[in-house]
Amino acid sequence: MKGQILSGEFGKIIIRQKSDENIELGELLVTEDKNKMILQVYDLIYGSQLSQQNLELISGLKLEENTDLEFLDKELRNYNLALLKPMITLQGDSVKLTKTLPKVFSEVREVTKQDLKFLSKPKNPLFVGKLRSGSKFLDVDIFLDGEKAFSHHILIPATTGRGKSNLTSCMLWDSVGKDYCGILVLDPHDEYYGRNKIGLKDHPDKNKVVYYTTENPPTGAKTLKINLKSFKPHHFDGVFYLTDAQKDAMIAYYKRYREEWIEAVVTEKEVKGDFFESTLAVLKRKLSSLLNIDSVEGKISCKGVFDTQAGESTLKDVVGELEDSKVVIIDTSSFSGQAELLIGSLISTNILGRYKNYKAKGELKDKPVISIVLEEAPRVLGKKVLESGSNIFETIAREGRKFRVGLTAITQLPSLIPREILANINTKIILGVEMAPERQAIIESASQDLSSDNRNIASLDTGEAIITSNFTKFAIPVKIPLFEDFIKHDSKKEMKNDFTGVKLE
Amino acid sequence: MKFAHMADCHLGSWRDPKLHSLSIKAFMVAVDKCIKENVDFVIIAGDLFNTSFPSFDSLNIATKKLKQLKDEGIQVYVVPGSHDFSPSGKTMLDVLENAGLMINVVKGEIINNKLNLKFTLDNKTGAKITGMLGRRGALEKSSYEQLNKESLENKKGFKIFIFHSAITEFKPSELDVIVSNPLSFLPKGFDYYAGGHVHTVMERKQEGYGLIVYPGPLFPNSFKEIEDLGTGGFYIYDSGDIRFEPIKIVDTFHIDIGCENKTPERVREEIFEKIKGKDLKNTLVTLRLDGVLETGKPSDINFKEIFDKIYEKSAYFVMKNTNKLASKEFKEVKLQKESIDELESSLINEHVGQIKIENMNINKEKELTKKLINILSAEKNEGETNTDFEKRVKQDVFKILEEEKTI
Q: What local confidence, expressed as pLDDT, does residue B366 receive?
């Protein structure tokens, strides 16, 4: 027994902690009456039979006069009180939101694996960690319904060092080889593939992981090349600032030269319209700089990712791979922020377009859900960014779920994302967040009532999280395993080498 | 140093005797040009033959021309391609190599589970040549994954890598469905990468690699290739410079008519308009019709009359493609896909998942189906008994099923 309920109100049940027990913030407790009720500790305070004045006096005597005073029946006179909020009520096999108070003086005990049998594995399980009670964790795996969670967007907010990358790595690892989802990862830190460390390249189903990079691709990785013909003017929306005249010039070029329009801008071909020379010159400079291309004697010279000859099928390949339920990682670590967004925008526009088309043809239900992992999400979903014009990521955040396309947004600063977009993100995996305004933004947009969890969120240690989701009955505290430990149970498949056709000596 | 680089000769392709003979002639002309150009050696980057067990006449011509090269002191270096290499590992190229008519450069040894390819030295020029074969469904991937690239990259000298695979990064958009391998499979630092398999002409200087070249086929292998390429050809490398050497056996003339909302009579008139006054002597004529006719059926277009008219102008051969031509009366008929690959993929997608197989997800099932289709499309070779043919196909099928662990 951990303690006993003594008073309080709904949402603030006060229990007295048994003297030889320890109760932690965030711990799950159970009280059993007619039904079983699971409660969570959200605050801890001291309680005493003595007045504050007397306590202060006794403390003074001990401190100043070094007296050897001891309380008579000290466990009875001074104790800890815990404030609990009800999570759920179990009536037989059914789980309901709690609407009643447990009886006064009901005993509360530690939660056990047996109490949590109702946490069943969904059809398309996405592993997020072990159930946590305070800082301890139980051997109970917590799964989200991956199909629903990914399509209705996921937010992963956390202060640096609280385990965002570790959680994302675990989720990606768990998603590899699952037919229900394809995941696009725009990876600005080149950390998920594991070029020089353990990563998704070590997955037993590594043929379901595709890695695009520009820098010295390891064997099997693809060199990221995007053909200039792939771009249309609207792909640049939200990527960089363009005046109305520059936008009009882009459209005029596109109308005249179609897929050769970028080449036409950079090689200064003629275009219809009353455009100032300076407008066209600035447009050329901006495109040349962003795309790392130049015009040499009327021909385009390409130095980086964007190319006139290579990469014609890249876009189709990436979208096809996602439709084949693969995890596609694009290493954007060597790009400018704008180039990264441009590539993300191009691919995302294509995915959404294709899935809209599937919906129109009634084929959408057979397609895997696609999630786009965005690091530092406010760069594309921030209030300031969106004030200067909408972009594809905002569109996906608002309407993507209808087309089975979702975002997995990772950020340290959720408060920079507009409230209505945060509200559209139906699953939030909250890791430790130290800054009060950031916590407030999350609490206000959470799927469950987290109004009393402010302190709880602030005190989350590395790897500890709270999941609040439209697809869970209550806000679930979880402990996320260390990626290196998590992948240990997925032993590497013995690859059968096949050198057929090679004349071996 | 001067060498020729050809690929995808596909000797034995085309069922029609006239087109079949053009394909054979293209190879003969190519060899004659190599001799005339006095090249030091010839590279054939896969698919010399259209099947692993070619017909007598294909083998006869190949042997004759390869012997001519040998007599001229011109060595031929090859890698097997996806067509002339069977899943069971047998290829007629072995016979030609044993006869001293060519050298298959895909040789190596396994050290610590890694494939260490060996260089074949061209004695005349000192060029070091190695390469990797191509297999159906890009099954050569497994060998590339275990390839010790470092040992190849560290070797000094003029190096040539022959391969028979599409490179993902350089796939043209019209071939986006073709199975490909990433550029990162290839060892870096070679002077010349002699590619095959992709039926388009491409040359590119790639940073960190060298000159990557695809010559395309010696003669187009499909209706669309005739339209797109017109003619085939090969490359000649001459002391650092390269040039494409086209092989023109016949002229080509393409008629492409959009038939949307047109009557069969109107279509007929437009075709006649297109050939009016044209000299079609010794010309291969392609006729492509697409769209939905306003009235009537595609069969209402009098093709016999049209063909006769074209042949009257001494055309070498006329071929038509009406896959995307439909009539309003038969709207429910689905338009056909462009290539066999696309058509097969689309049929597989329609029917996949109907039979439950243990440990087999949809994507695996698709891949396996494609591989089985490839094997089961094998034809009986000349001189092969029914029992041997059946045995060969069974062996190939069991090998694939074994690989997929479904048996």
A: 82
